[in-house]
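Blinded run. Sample ID left blank on purpose so nobody reads anything into the name before looking at the predicted structure. Input follows.
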Amino acid sequence: MIAMKFSKKILLLSMVFIISIIISINLNTQQVTSYRGINPIIIFDVAHQQTFNHTQMQSAIQLIEQEFDAEVFINYDNFTYTNLFGADLVIIPAPFIYAKNVGTNSPFTTIEDRAIVEYYQDGGSVLFLANPYFFEDNLENYSSNLRNLNLFMGELGHETEDYSSLALADQNGILMNDYSYRYNDPRFIYIDNTTMDTEHPIIIGGNAEKTVNELLTCSYFSPKDYADRIINTSLTTYDLDLTGKVLSGGNYRTILLADEKFEGRGISCASMLMFSDLKIVENDTITWFEAYDNALLWENMIAWLLKDIPEPERIYPITEFGFFCFRNDCYILYFSCFWFHSIYNWS
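Blinded prediction complete.
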Protein backbone atom coordinates (compact mmCIF):
# COMPACT_ATOMS: atom_id res chain seq x y z
CA MET A 1 0.00 0.00 0.00
CA ILE A 2 2.83 2.36 0.85
CA ALA A 3 4.51 1.62 -2.48
CA MET A 4 1.27 2.22 -4.40
CA LYS A 5 0.67 5.46 -2.55
CA PHE A 6 4.22 6.54 -3.30
CA SER A 7 3.79 5.63 -6.99
CA LYS A 8 0.61 7.69 -7.20
CA LYS A 9 2.43 10.66 -5.70
CA ILE A 10 5.21 10.32 -8.27
CA LEU A 11 2.67 10.07 -11.09
CA LEU A 12 0.75 13.13 -9.92
CA LEU A 13 3.90 15.15 -9.42
CA SER A 14 5.03 14.21 -12.93
CA MET A 15 1.71 15.38 -14.32
CA VAL A 16 2.00 18.65 -12.41
CA PHE A 17 5.50 19.11 -13.77
CA ILE A 18 4.35 18.62 -17.37
CA ILE A 19 1.34 20.91 -16.93
CA SER A 20 3.55 23.59 -15.36
CA ILE A 21 5.96 23.52 -18.29
CA ILE A 22 3.07 23.83 -20.79
CA ILE A 23 1.57 26.75 -18.88
CA SER A 24 4.92 28.53 -18.68
CA ILE A 25 5.47 28.13 -22.44
CA ASN A 26 2.03 29.55 -23.16
CA LEU A 27 2.65 32.49 -20.84
CA ASN A 28 5.95 33.28 -22.50
CA THR A 29 4.73 33.07 -26.09
CA GLN A 30 1.40 34.83 -25.66
CA GLN A 31 1.07 37.95 -27.81
CA VAL A 32 -1.10 40.79 -26.60
CA THR A 33 -2.81 42.92 -29.23
CA SER A 34 -2.26 46.64 -29.01
CA TYR A 35 -5.58 47.64 -30.58
CA ARG A 36 -8.01 49.67 -28.51
CA GLY A 37 -10.83 47.44 -29.74
CA ILE A 38 -11.15 43.98 -31.19
CA ASN A 39 -11.28 45.45 -34.71
CA PRO A 40 -9.37 48.70 -35.25
CA ILE A 41 -11.41 51.62 -36.54
CA ILE A 42 -9.84 53.61 -39.39
CA ILE A 43 -11.26 56.83 -40.85
CA PHE A 44 -10.34 57.76 -44.42
CA ASP A 45 -11.07 61.44 -45.01
CA VAL A 46 -12.60 62.71 -48.27
CA ALA A 47 -14.42 65.75 -46.87
CA HIS A 48 -11.82 68.42 -47.67
CA GLN A 49 -11.71 68.78 -51.46
CA GLN A 50 -9.39 65.84 -52.07
CA THR A 51 -9.59 64.91 -55.74
CA PHE A 52 -7.05 62.13 -55.16
CA ASN A 53 -8.76 60.00 -52.53
CA HIS A 54 -9.92 56.49 -51.64
CA THR A 55 -11.19 55.81 -55.16
CA GLN A 56 -7.61 55.49 -56.39
CA MET A 57 -6.52 53.42 -53.37
CA GLN A 58 -8.83 50.43 -53.25
CA SER A 59 -5.99 47.89 -52.99
CA ALA A 60 -4.41 49.80 -50.10
CA ILE A 61 -7.73 49.94 -48.27
CA GLN A 62 -8.40 46.27 -48.94
CA LEU A 63 -5.00 45.39 -47.47
CA ILE A 64 -5.90 47.27 -44.28
CA GLU A 65 -9.19 45.40 -43.97
CA GLN A 66 -7.65 41.99 -44.61
CA GLU A 67 -4.33 42.20 -42.79
CA PHE A 68 -5.55 44.07 -39.72
CA ASP A 69 -9.17 42.94 -39.61
CA ALA A 70 -10.00 46.64 -39.58
CA GLU A 71 -13.16 48.58 -40.31
CA VAL A 72 -12.48 51.45 -42.73
CA PHE A 73 -14.99 54.29 -42.77
CA ILE A 74 -15.00 56.95 -45.51
CA ASN A 75 -15.48 60.35 -43.87
CA TYR A 76 -17.65 62.97 -45.62
CA ASP A 77 -18.05 65.35 -42.67
CA ASN A 78 -15.95 67.93 -40.89
CA PHE A 79 -13.86 66.56 -38.05
CA THR A 80 -15.12 66.88 -34.50
CA TYR A 81 -13.80 65.24 -31.39
CA THR A 82 -17.07 63.32 -31.24
CA ASN A 83 -16.80 61.69 -34.67
CA LEU A 84 -13.09 60.98 -34.11
CA PHE A 85 -13.64 59.41 -30.72
CA GLY A 86 -12.83 55.72 -30.70
CA ALA A 87 -10.92 55.73 -33.99
CA ASP A 88 -7.50 54.09 -33.97
CA LEU A 89 -6.22 55.83 -37.10
CA VAL A 90 -7.26 58.79 -39.26
CA ILE A 91 -5.94 58.97 -42.83
CA ILE A 92 -5.95 62.52 -44.24
CA PRO A 93 -5.05 63.12 -47.89
CA ALA A 94 -4.16 66.68 -48.85
CA PRO A 95 -6.73 68.84 -50.66
CA PHE A 96 -6.59 69.45 -54.40
CA ILE A 97 -3.93 71.99 -55.34
CA TYR A 98 -6.58 74.50 -56.49
CA ALA A 99 -9.06 73.72 -53.73
CA LYS A 100 -11.21 76.70 -52.80
CA ASN A 101 -10.53 77.95 -49.32
CA VAL A 102 -13.17 77.62 -46.66
CA GLY A 103 -12.57 80.36 -44.11
CA THR A 104 -9.33 82.31 -44.14
CA ASN A 105 -6.68 79.61 -44.33
CA SER A 106 -7.66 76.28 -45.81
CA PRO A 107 -10.49 73.81 -46.37
CA PHE A 108 -9.85 72.68 -42.81
CA THR A 109 -11.43 74.76 -40.07
CA THR A 110 -9.87 75.81 -36.78
CA ILE A 111 -12.37 73.63 -34.91
CA GLU A 112 -11.24 70.62 -36.93
CA ASP A 113 -7.62 71.44 -36.24
CA ARG A 114 -8.23 71.43 -32.51
CA ALA A 115 -10.25 68.20 -32.74
CA ILE A 116 -7.33 66.41 -34.42
CA VAL A 117 -4.85 67.76 -31.86
CA GLU A 118 -7.02 66.53 -28.99
CA TYR A 119 -7.42 63.19 -30.73
CA TYR A 120 -3.65 62.99 -31.06
CA GLN A 121 -3.10 63.87 -27.41
CA ASP A 122 -5.54 61.13 -26.46
CA GLY A 123 -3.41 58.52 -28.19
CA GLY A 124 -4.84 58.48 -31.71
CA SER A 125 -2.70 58.04 -34.82
CA VAL A 126 -2.79 60.14 -37.99
CA LEU A 127 -1.45 59.50 -41.48
CA PHE A 128 -1.03 62.59 -43.69
CA LEU A 129 -0.71 61.91 -47.42
CA ALA A 130 0.12 64.32 -50.23
CA ASN A 131 1.17 64.32 -53.86
CA PRO A 132 3.56 66.44 -55.91
CA TYR A 133 2.53 68.66 -58.79
CA PHE A 134 1.74 66.94 -62.09
CA PHE A 135 2.26 69.01 -65.24
CA GLU A 136 0.01 66.87 -67.44
CA ASP A 137 -3.57 68.04 -67.86
CA ASN A 138 -4.95 64.54 -67.34
CA LEU A 139 -2.99 64.15 -64.08
CA GLU A 140 -3.43 67.65 -62.66
CA ASN A 141 -6.30 66.57 -60.41
CA TYR A 142 -3.86 64.33 -58.56
CA SER A 143 -1.80 67.35 -57.44
CA SER A 144 -2.07 68.31 -53.76
CA ASN A 145 -2.16 71.61 -51.92
CA LEU A 146 0.72 71.09 -49.49
CA ARG A 147 0.32 74.50 -47.87
CA ASN A 148 -3.28 73.80 -46.88
CA LEU A 149 -2.25 70.48 -45.36
CA ASN A 150 0.57 72.16 -43.43
CA LEU A 151 -1.80 74.79 -42.08
CA PHE A 152 -3.97 72.02 -40.75
CA MET A 153 -0.97 70.35 -39.14
CA GLY A 154 -0.24 73.55 -37.25
CA GLU A 155 2.73 74.68 -39.30
CA LEU A 156 1.93 78.35 -38.77
CA GLY A 157 1.74 78.08 -35.04
CA HIS A 158 -0.31 76.30 -32.43
CA GLU A 159 0.63 74.50 -29.25
CA THR A 160 3.57 72.12 -29.45
CA GLU A 161 1.16 69.18 -29.30
CA ASP A 162 0.28 69.50 -32.98
CA TYR A 163 1.68 67.74 -36.02
CA SER A 164 3.93 70.56 -37.29
CA SER A 165 6.97 68.28 -36.99
CA LEU A 166 5.53 66.31 -39.91
CA ALA A 167 5.00 69.28 -42.23
CA LEU A 168 5.93 69.01 -45.89
CA ALA A 169 7.59 71.65 -48.07
CA ASP A 170 5.54 74.83 -47.97
CA GLN A 171 5.24 75.17 -51.74
CA ASN A 172 4.24 72.77 -54.46
CA GLY A 173 6.61 71.12 -56.90
CA ILE A 174 8.00 67.76 -57.85
CA LEU A 175 11.23 65.84 -57.34
CA MET A 176 13.46 64.74 -60.20
CA ASN A 177 16.46 62.42 -60.42
CA ASP A 178 18.42 61.99 -63.63
CA TYR A 179 20.29 58.93 -62.38
CA SER A 180 18.10 56.84 -60.11
CA TYR A 181 14.77 56.51 -61.92
CA ARG A 182 12.65 53.91 -63.69
CA TYR A 183 10.20 53.65 -66.63
CA ASN A 184 12.07 56.31 -68.62
CA ASP A 185 10.74 59.09 -66.43
CA PRO A 186 13.11 60.96 -64.06
CA ARG A 187 10.13 61.73 -61.80
CA PHE A 188 9.66 58.02 -61.10
CA ILE A 189 12.43 57.82 -58.52
CA TYR A 190 13.91 54.51 -57.44
CA ILE A 191 14.92 54.25 -53.76
CA ASP A 192 16.91 51.47 -52.10
CA ASN A 193 17.66 50.87 -48.43
CA THR A 194 20.87 52.91 -48.47
CA THR A 195 18.78 56.04 -47.90
CA MET A 196 16.25 54.54 -45.47
CA ASP A 197 16.30 54.42 -41.69
CA THR A 198 16.88 50.67 -41.56
CA GLU A 199 16.53 50.57 -37.77
CA HIS A 200 13.02 52.01 -37.67
CA PRO A 201 10.07 49.56 -37.29
CA ILE A 202 8.41 51.06 -40.38
CA ILE A 203 11.31 49.77 -42.47
CA ILE A 204 12.22 46.54 -40.68
CA GLY A 205 8.60 45.62 -40.01
CA GLY A 206 9.34 43.27 -37.11
CA ASN A 207 11.06 40.48 -39.08
CA ALA A 208 13.10 39.82 -42.21
CA GLU A 209 10.05 39.02 -44.35
CA LYS A 210 8.60 42.45 -43.60
CA THR A 211 11.74 44.48 -44.33
CA VAL A 212 11.41 47.19 -46.97
CA ASN A 213 14.36 47.26 -49.39
CA GLU A 214 13.25 48.92 -52.64
CA LEU A 215 10.64 51.53 -53.50
CA LEU A 216 9.34 53.52 -56.42
CA THR A 217 7.97 56.99 -55.82
CA CYS A 218 6.76 60.12 -57.55
CA SER A 219 6.93 62.69 -54.83
CA TYR A 220 7.70 66.04 -53.32
CA PHE A 221 9.52 66.29 -49.98
CA SER A 222 9.69 67.55 -46.42
CA PRO A 223 12.41 69.99 -45.31
CA LYS A 224 11.89 69.30 -41.60
CA ASP A 225 14.64 67.84 -39.46
CA TYR A 226 12.96 67.44 -36.06
CA ALA A 227 10.96 64.32 -36.81
CA ASP A 228 12.32 60.90 -37.70
CA ARG A 229 13.42 60.88 -41.34
CA ILE A 230 12.39 57.40 -42.40
CA ILE A 231 12.82 57.46 -46.19
CA ASN A 232 15.06 59.73 -48.25
CA THR A 233 15.89 59.89 -51.94
CA SER A 234 19.46 59.72 -53.20
CA LEU A 235 21.87 62.64 -53.22
CA THR A 236 21.28 63.30 -56.93
CA THR A 237 17.66 64.39 -56.41
CA TYR A 238 16.57 67.97 -57.15
CA ASP A 239 13.21 69.73 -57.16
CA LEU A 240 11.20 71.80 -59.63
CA ASP A 241 8.60 74.47 -58.99
CA LEU A 242 5.22 74.73 -60.73
CA THR A 243 6.79 76.36 -63.79
CA GLY A 244 9.43 73.65 -64.21
CA LYS A 245 12.26 75.79 -62.88
CA VAL A 246 14.94 74.00 -60.85
CA LEU A 247 14.76 75.31 -57.28
CA SER A 248 17.90 73.73 -55.86
CA GLY A 249 20.69 71.35 -56.79
CA GLY A 250 21.13 67.71 -55.90
CA ASN A 251 20.53 66.79 -52.28
CA TYR A 252 18.86 64.22 -50.09
CA ARG A 253 15.10 64.73 -49.97
CA THR A 254 12.92 63.25 -47.24
CA ILE A 255 9.64 61.83 -48.52
CA LEU A 256 8.42 60.12 -45.34
CA LEU A 257 8.54 61.38 -41.76
CA ALA A 258 7.35 59.77 -38.53
CA ASP A 259 6.89 61.19 -35.07
CA GLU A 260 5.52 60.05 -31.72
CA LYS A 261 4.26 62.40 -29.03
CA PHE A 262 2.33 61.53 -25.92
CA GLU A 263 0.57 58.27 -26.87
CA GLY A 264 -0.17 59.31 -30.45
CA ARG A 265 1.76 58.52 -33.60
CA GLY A 266 1.96 60.39 -36.88
CA ILE A 267 3.35 59.86 -40.37
CA SER A 268 3.49 62.23 -43.31
CA CYS A 269 4.28 60.93 -46.79
CA ALA A 270 4.76 63.25 -49.76
CA SER A 271 3.59 60.62 -52.24
CA MET A 272 0.10 59.20 -52.05
CA LEU A 273 0.49 58.09 -55.64
CA MET A 274 2.96 55.31 -54.72
CA PHE A 275 0.20 53.48 -52.81
CA SER A 276 -2.44 53.84 -55.52
CA ASP A 277 -4.00 51.53 -58.11
CA LEU A 278 -2.94 53.81 -60.97
CA LYS A 279 -0.86 52.18 -63.68
CA ILE A 280 2.74 53.34 -63.68
CA VAL A 281 2.58 53.86 -67.45
CA GLU A 282 -0.48 53.62 -69.64
CA ASN A 283 0.60 50.50 -71.53
CA ASP A 284 1.94 48.70 -68.46
CA THR A 285 -0.02 46.33 -66.25
CA ILE A 286 1.76 47.01 -62.95
CA THR A 287 0.33 49.55 -60.56
CA TRP A 288 2.19 51.84 -58.18
CA PHE A 289 0.96 49.80 -55.23
CA GLU A 290 2.46 46.65 -56.76
CA ALA A 291 5.86 48.19 -57.56
CA TYR A 292 8.84 46.88 -55.59
CA ASP A 293 8.07 47.04 -51.83
CA ASN A 294 5.46 49.82 -52.01
CA ALA A 295 2.64 47.61 -50.70
CA LEU A 296 4.86 46.30 -47.91
CA LEU A 297 5.78 49.84 -46.87
CA TRP A 298 2.06 50.67 -46.69
CA GLU A 299 1.44 47.62 -44.52
CA ASN A 300 4.32 48.51 -42.18
CA MET A 301 3.14 52.11 -41.91
CA ILE A 302 -0.35 51.04 -40.91
CA ALA A 303 1.03 48.46 -38.48
CA TRP A 304 3.24 51.08 -36.80
CA LEU A 305 0.39 53.59 -36.59
CA LEU A 306 -1.86 50.91 -35.05
CA LYS A 307 1.00 50.02 -32.68
CA ASP A 308 0.85 46.47 -33.97
CA ILE A 309 4.32 45.79 -35.38
CA PRO A 310 5.34 42.59 -33.59
CA GLU A 311 8.33 42.40 -31.28
CA PRO A 312 11.30 40.30 -32.44
CA GLU A 313 10.88 36.63 -31.55
CA ARG A 314 12.23 35.96 -28.09
CA ILE A 315 13.96 32.70 -27.19
CA TYR A 316 13.43 31.76 -23.57
CA PRO A 317 16.01 29.55 -21.82
CA ILE A 318 15.09 26.24 -20.26
CA THR A 319 13.65 26.78 -16.83
CA GLU A 320 16.20 26.67 -14.05
CA PHE A 321 15.18 24.66 -11.01
CA GLY A 322 16.33 25.51 -7.55
CA PHE A 323 15.28 26.92 -4.26
CA PHE A 324 15.97 30.50 -5.38
CA CYS A 325 14.15 30.29 -8.72
CA PHE A 326 11.67 33.17 -8.97
CA ARG A 327 10.28 32.80 -12.50
CA ASN A 328 6.52 32.55 -12.89
CA ASP A 329 6.69 28.97 -14.11
CA CYS A 330 8.72 27.98 -11.03
CA TYR A 331 6.08 29.51 -8.81
CA ILE A 332 3.43 27.49 -10.63
CA LEU A 333 5.40 24.27 -10.24
CA TYR A 334 6.32 24.77 -6.57
CA PHE A 335 2.81 25.83 -5.60
CA SER A 336 1.27 22.85 -7.42
CA CYS A 337 3.68 20.41 -5.78
CA PHE A 338 3.00 21.91 -2.37
CA TRP A 339 -0.76 21.73 -2.94
CA PHE A 340 -0.76 18.04 -3.96
CA HIS A 341 1.67 17.15 -1.19
CA SER A 342 -0.61 18.81 1.37
CA ILE A 343 -3.67 16.91 0.12
CA TYR A 344 -1.92 13.56 0.46
CA ASN A 345 -0.66 14.36 3.89
CA TRP A 346 -4.14 15.33 5.03
CA SER A 347 -5.79 12.28 3.47
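Unblinding after everyone has recorded impressions. The mean pLDDT is 81.
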